[in-house]
Design goal:
Elements lengths: L2 H7 L2 H13 L10 H18 L38
InterPro entries: DUF1315
Protein name: DUF1315 family protein
């Protein structure tokens, strides 16, 4: 079975079960996944998600925000806060 054939038989329910198995390290019947099974399941989930889900819904997606190129975050200087009171150790 090649990757395309495998992805053709997967559906959202099966992928959810594979993800759960990877997360908890067990199959639904309680049998522990081997290291190889965990790797294969993760690869199958990622491959299926790449083919069937938008980027924002895929496992591992990190929202990088909407900053334009060369735009920097505001720096926060606590000394400018009215409520800022440094702690003094005696």
């Amino acid at each position: 079975m090649n990757i395309e054939q495998m992805l053709a038989v997967l559906d959202p329910e099966i992928v959810a079960r594979l993800k759960t198995a990877v997360e908890i390290g067990k199959w639904p019947n309680g049998v522990a996944l081997t290291t190889e099974q965990r790797q294969i399941c993760m690869q199958a989930v990622y491959a299926w998600e790449m083919k069937n889900l938008p980027e924002t819904e895929r496992s591992g997606y990190i929202d990088r925000g909407t900053k334009e190129e060369d735009e920097h975050c505001d720096s926060h200087d606590p000394k400018q806060d009215e409520e800022f009171k440094p702690i003094r150790f005696v």
